[in-house]
Amino acid sequence: MGAPLRRLAPLAALVVALPALAWAGALDERLAAYRAAGAGPFTAEAGKALWGQTRTVAGEAPRSCPACHTADLKARGKHVETGKPIDPLAPSANPDRLTDGRQIEKWLLRNCKWTLGRECVPQEKGDLLTFIAGQ
Questions:
Q1: Structural domain of 109
Q2: At residue 58, what are phi and psi to the nearest 5 degrees?
Q3: Facing residues of 63 across strands?
Q4: What digits encode the pLDDT tens for the residues 78-102?
Q5: Taking the alpha carbons of 104, 135, 94, 68 in that order, is the dihedral positive or negative?
Q6: How many domains are contained in the chain?
Q7: Average pLDDT score over residue span 29-53
């Protein structure tokens, strides 16, 4: 490798690593906030169990996370009511996921209310995020 290319190698590595660093920062921040609220420890197993639960909310058709996001978080989903496409939820398939703490909270609030009929508690949020992060 020539001298100019050798000098660019660290920059290239940084560019490749930045999405993962942003993802880890936002996720760690959210998990720390849930711990401060008394939640934890978080497990992917508990998150997976919550993810797969089917609930009936206010007499409507049964709802679950996989109904819109699919059982494979690396696949594209589609909202069951609107038909709107949903990008993969797994950070391994979509590096933009879990990179913004405000977006994480916004979508957890919206999706927990729609799917469970209530807000998720910090323990559930931490377990779900731990599960999603491992996908």
A1: 3-133
A2: 50, 45
A3: 55
A4: 999 999 999 999 999 999 999 999 9
A5: negative
A6: 1
A7: 97
Match 């996921």 to its residue by tokens: 97
Contact 55, 117 (CB under 8 A): yes
What backbone phi and psi angles, to 5 degrees, belong to 123? -60, -45
The pTM score is: 0.81
On the CB side of 37, CA atoms within 13 Å amount to 15
Average pLDDT for 4-23: 46
Q: Which two tokens stand for residue 93?
A: 């398939």
In Å, what is the CA distance from 80 to each residue of 75, 77, 83? Answer: 15, 9, 6
Gap between the Cα atoms of 87 and 83, Å rounded? 13
Q: Which of 119, 115, 128 is nearest to 62 (CA)?
A: 115
- How distant is the alpha carbon of residue 103 from its chain centre? 10
Domain containing residue 71: CATH number? 1.10.760.10
